[in-house]
Amino acid sequence: MFERYQAGEQAVLVHIDFPDESCKEDLNEFKMLVSSAGVQALTIVTGKRNTPDSRFFVGSGKAEEIRDAVHLVAANVILFNHSLTPSQEKNIEALCECRVVDRTTLILDIFAQRARTHEGKLQVELAQLRHMSSRLIRGWTHLERQKGGIGLRGPGETQLETDRRLLRERMVNIRKRLDKVEVQRQQGRRARTRAELPTLSLVGYTNAGKSTLFNTLTQSEVYAADKLFSTLDPTLRKMDLPGIGRVILADTVGFIRHLPHDLVAAFKATLTETREAELLLHVVDISDDRRSENIEQVEYVLKEIEANEVPQLVICNKIDNLDDIEPRIDRDEQGVPIRVWLSAQANIGIELLFTALAERLDIQVVNHQLNIPPSAGKLRGELYKLNCITHETFDEQGYCHLEVKMPSREWQRLIATKYSELVDYIVH
Questions:
Q1: What is the distance between the alpha carbons of residues 10 and 13, in angstroms, rounded to a whole number?
Q2: Which ranges carry the Hflx-type G domain (predicted)?
């Protein structure tokens, strides 16, 4: 569909500083993006401008400097830490005779590499097609001589229309398949609602440590690495929290500064888990110098997906990277936990998180002493599964004396569904 220079794995990076905050990007974050994409950065071209140039984005002099750098290091792709217009990409490619990839396309490529589930792959492809549709016209520059005029009309316009139609048909097909996946997700949510299982959703800037915390809390082995977007596909796990009972924990894709709008739109179905959660666990890399800006970006995306009204508990993660910071709970004027300071990697302060969650979820807890006969061993096993036994002794007759602590809803469920005799074993 496109007649363009082939992309490669050896790149020249281009980063321009602008005084306008809306155009500013972080160079270190860009380097991490490039590394996450598996691309080798050969050299970096930097500069300053007040506003982007309409033709080359960087100005003619800087564009020639980029061209010279490409030839000097024999790079086969130019990566911009900015979003470019289709005409800017075309002009720079023509000048440098090298493939040009902007920040948006780079992020889309990383997402394509990370997608593992059927739904994730569909969402990434939809975002890529949306992005590609705005750049389709420049794929046919070799047919420009056939734009019109007697003797010059040819298949160029027809081919372009064909490609547009194929893109539209493919996007419609993907949306239909995603709608089916969304129906399945809704059924799962209804089942969890009937079971009265509260949902907690991990959100935060990419590489803040969400997956590491998820693994620590659920004893799972979700892929976690010091890379941007190491998690793409949403993961849900049931977990038993001490003093809280069974909940659903969702690990979601990390957010990033200037996250492409096409991606946000494509992942809205996935992020429904975030919108409908009882509580958001906003994980913050407290050791990051730009943590304040990262928090602002997460809040911006949450507003865009209509999840900004969901209650939040901020998790100040990676305290082991800082000196003299102890795990603690910060509370508001009413004594409600608003921040928990911990390290998921070093397993420090996790018990404080359990305490804060129990308070924020406001779960009613029952404490009972039970005297269970030897014939009710199955009930004892069920209580152990719920992780609610705080003390246990046996007498000479084989009776089991238990002290249990569990959410009221779990206690009522046991009585209503399986073990109505529980009330007879309570020691009054």
A1: 10
A2: 198-365
Residue of 254, 363, 264, 360 whose CA lies nearest to 304:
264
**Do 154 and 146 meet the contact criterion of CB atoms below 8 Å apart?**
yes
CA 14, CA 3: separation in Å to the nearest integer? 23
pLDDT digit string, tens, across residues 270-318: 566 677 788 999 999 999 988 898 898 889 888 887 888 889 999 999 9
| Residue 146 pLDDT class (50, 70, 90 cuts) | very low
Point out which residues pair with 12 in neighbouring strands: 43, 78
Structure tokens at 81: 């830490």
C-alpha 409/C-alpha 52 separation (Å) is 59
φ and ψ of 365, to 5 deg: -115, 140
Maximum CA extent, the chain: 107
SS3 276: coil
More confident residue, 54 or 195: 54
Give, for 290, the enclosing helix (H) or strand (E).
Answer: none
Q: Which two tokens stand for residue 230?
A: 């190491």
- With a cut of 80, say whether residue 250 has pLDDT above it: yes
Helix pair 60-73, 86-96: axis angle to 10 deg = 50
Structure tokens given for 390: 């705080």
For every residue of 359-415, DSSP letters joined together read HHHT--EEEEEEEE-GGGHHHHHHHHHTT-EEEEEE-TT--EEEEEEEEHHHHHHHH
Q: Which amino acid is at 206?
A: T
